[in-house]
Amino acid sequence: MAPEREPLGALQQDAARHRDEWGIEFSRIVAFSDGVFAIAITLLVLTIEIPENSHDLTRVLDNQIGDFFAYALSFAVLGKLWLAHHRFFSALARFDPILMGINLVYLAFVALVPFTSELLGDYSNQSIAVIFYAASMFAVSITFTIQIVYSYRADLVKPEMRDLERRMAGPSNLIVAGLFLASIPVAAIAPSVAPFMWIGVFLTGRRVADRVAALRA
Amino acid sequence: MAPEREPLGALQQDAARHRDEWGIEFSRIVAFSDGVFAIAITLLVLTIEIPENSHDLTRVLDNQIGDFFAYALSFAVLGKLWLAHHRFFSALARFDPILMGINLVYLAFVALVPFTSELLGDYSNQSIAVIFYAASMFAVSITFTIQIVYSYRADLVKPEMRDLERRMAGPSNLIVAGLFLASIPVAAIAPSVAPFMWIGVFLTGRRVADRVAALRA
Amino acid sequence: MAPEREPLGALQQDAARHRDEWGIEFSRIVAFSDGVFAIAITLLVLTIEIPENSHDLTRVLDNQIGDFFAYALSFAVLGKLWLAHHRFFSALARFDPILMGINLVYLAFVALVPFTSELLGDYSNQSIAVIFYAASMFAVSITFTIQIVYSYRADLVKPEMRDLERRMAGPSNLIVAGLFLASIPVAAIAPSVAPFMWIGVFLTGRRVADRVAALRA
Amino acid sequence: MAPEREPLGALQQDAARHRDEWGIEFSRIVAFSDGVFAIAITLLVLTIEIPENSHDLTRVLDNQIGDFFAYALSFAVLGKLWLAHHRFFSALARFDPILMGINLVYLAFVALVPFTSELLGDYSNQSIAVIFYAASMFAVSITFTIQIVYSYRADLVKPEMRDLERRMAGPSNLIVAGLFLASIPVAAIAPSVAPFMWIGVFLTGRRVADRVAALRA
What we know:
By secondary structure, chain A is mainly α.
């Protein structure tokens, strides 16, 4: 499948591997990424605290409305990010070690969300918790953007998907990253306002991407 | 595989993708759903508390009979729901973004079960805990019903499976949803009675589905 | 693939599905089982407690030698059981709903191991903890034996594997189940002796299976 | 596929199975390993503690800089080790029971990392915590080296990959193992110095492997 037993072997190995040829390898990376997403999203449930020996459970659960909100928000954001990752990886024709490295950094921020989400649920009235949450989500979306940009530059995207994905993945994801970045200074001043900005994440989608594409054209 | 490089691209992308053509994509969604189920079902074990520095472990474990019951019940219910999800997804010919969205909401309720199960195990004598449990299970089964109904309307089900699944998945699942819904007012009055109603979930199956089909015919 | 659109459809659906025809379904069940095993085995790490604000960490870790022993033992036993499950499922030609049901009960006991393992690590000097551990491992191995026996009766095993597996999986697994069962009364009297019996689990293998086969022949 | 129904059956079963023939089996082992890695790497997030009812969250988070460092370090090391495992398993033509056994021991040490990582994050100033961390990482890398060496001896590696992998996997991994081993005595004397040695892990790669190969030639 490739010239072996010659000193230059390492080069070939690092060369971008074609997705079909190396189907098992590609699917392992994809499965690993999906696994981290599935685990992180399911660990979110551990962020909802259960009081011990409480006599008035109703009132206690009332006080944990912040935990439920953080659970729902983080599940929705991680779900949306996973769908985007899912769609983008299906557009890849190949992968290379650098993309795998960026993907690992990206996953490190994804796996951090149960922590920042618990912080948000417990301390939504303190700026630092809201800033942490926004920063971690910004880190997830910006490392995803880096993956997209790199994949185009390194020519890893399927030719027939290039135009479609460029219009979809790129701008839509940059808007998500921008929203979380913009919410950081807002959170520093008014921590209760920032979460409302994040709702915008779910409004970015095809329509916005289409409008951006129309403007470009 | 589809007309690219034209402004209408997004439309084609959203069009329901055929299962065989997009086998890798479909299996990723299925694997992600299975992953969330497997993690949630295995996290249930964390809901059984282990007392620290106990001198009379036997008596302590005795008091945790509620935790064991909640573990067994939740494992059985999640197991049954997973089998239903498993069977239904094998009847799908295609999927589309809306089905993926509903599936994510469904998974958000599945992933919540370790929380509601722990609540039930610790506070089975308080109405609110039992109501929470019943409500979360109702949410899981009703979002599954919505997936089934939508899949039929959007014509995503394999033609040869339509009749079979309509008779199986639909009614059987609605009965499960109905049982959990009906147990909510019961739990409000008599929290210790509601769990007995849930046993009915395991009695719904082929026989009930066949009887419903017979009545229809 | 099967007669559809006729009232008897449900029968065909329940009929044992051939592994190759229903490859995706089979692999989902296998993947789900593997997932529960992988999660349970990795959750074992949470059973090793980390003391907070300890000034003399060395002495504290010394006291947790029981936790390390329980981790190593449970990892080894679950690993061995997974290998056996792995090998047995590769010998199946088909599966049916009853086997799936038994498999779920089996997995419920597998997923319980992180709990019984933590109990053992923390209370290895109390009979009840050792009995719980032995009982949970007995439950895992006996439900596996039931899976094996049922698969043979329901003719789900590949013809070319029947003899091989009968000699391997059956007796070897029964010995494991027997060892854990026999250790329960021992644990009731001398909790510190029972764990030594469990080491026998790792001595059962090909040699024992061959001797049993030789005796039979 | 193999002579059955004869007393020697067990022998054939244990004989190294060809990867393509036993594709499903091989991929299950690979998926199981990936699962343990994905779960362990995602459980790392649970090592970052969240203070309860803190009025000055900023200061509290400041004190947890050690937790964040341990998270980043462990994620990076596990990520790098997974990539190496991933690449090496793609070079295997076959597997056998012994390799599966070594792989399980290897995974037991991988799954232990969330514990040693939490220890490091909480007690980075105590030698014993740093030694534990270095020892667990040494155990992971040395059991991986044993897998590599065994696979070559048992002729399980694809012929066309032998030279390439021998130059890559072997030396690079031995250097990683050596670095962690060497850091143990350092940690005993100066616990704050050892972590700096670990950064060297990320500098070993192609370049070092190429230099080693050049020296050999």
